[in-house]
UniProtKB/TrEMBL annotation:
Claim: DNA-binding is one of the keywords in the record: no
Coiled-coil region: none
The protein's name in its UniProt record: WD40 repeat domain-containing protein
Pfam short name (any one): ANAPC4_WD40
Domain Anaphase-promoting complex subunit 4-like WD40 residues, every copy: 262-322
Amino acid sequence: MPVIAPVDCDTFVVKAAFLGNTAAFACGNGTVRLVGEGETLAKPHDGGLLAAAVSPDGSRIVTGGDDGRVVGVSADGSLSEIASRPRKWIDMVTVAAQGAVAFASGRTAWVVQEGGKEKEFTLPRAVGGIAFAPRGLRLAVARYDGVSLFWVNVDSPEQDLSWKGAHTGILFSPDGKYIVTTMQENALHGWRLADQQDMRMTGYPTKVKSMDWSAKGRYLATSGANAAVLWPFHGKSGPMGQQPLQLGVRSDTIVAVVACHPKEDVIAIGYQDGMVLAVRFEDNAEVLLRRPGEAPVSTLAWDARGERLAFGTEAGEAGIISLGE
């Protein structure tokens, strides 16, 4: 049976992550709680912590705050300031495979290379989401009426992917062939980059706020319905003409957060009522990881081996679930 080690965060948990064997909980009050052999409380922000992203190598969690700072937090609690934009709210951050950090505020996105070199991108409308391509050479910026693509290392014209409406979040597929955005309406939109073919994914009762790719990139898992909806991307046309998997169906609540297992075709699902399930793709077999709690699940994160799952909620409930044998 899964065992839960509770962690008291006392405030909205923005992002959970694993930095090696240390679980990190980035919290809305400007702190990051680090739980390993002991427990450390880091304070990267004077004020609210608005966004956080873990580096692909798991060496640090990068946070953005309403104090205008972008800060890297290591497993031992040490802090390193990456950038500062006084009087701006940094509410989006992402980290590339080679260490570059992108962040955004208002209509502007910035990239800071590992050596400290900065590049600025100004958009005509507010930034809705940012994502690096798998190799970190391109930055995709979701915005009103589509996506802007920029090369990070060279000066070249912006590439435009157009689709009417407000695009509020964004991901590249692990193979770099597709871009998918969440939208202000209850839908996803995608593009196949080779030919800019559009892909429309609809039918959600609420807005999609969480997306994650399966271990081999064959499925895109999403929140926003009474089950985790997994769109198949292993055909030549992505999800077009294919039915999605629906895992962890519940009649009385909505999926808030999804997190795919790093190695297996298994998904962790966090619901609006605070419950957490693990579900296997193949046969929809379910394991209850956490019973309903006080508030919606706000974040889920597997460790690199897929043996532990960190969770946090909007009310500050948090913990580390050990799945055991």
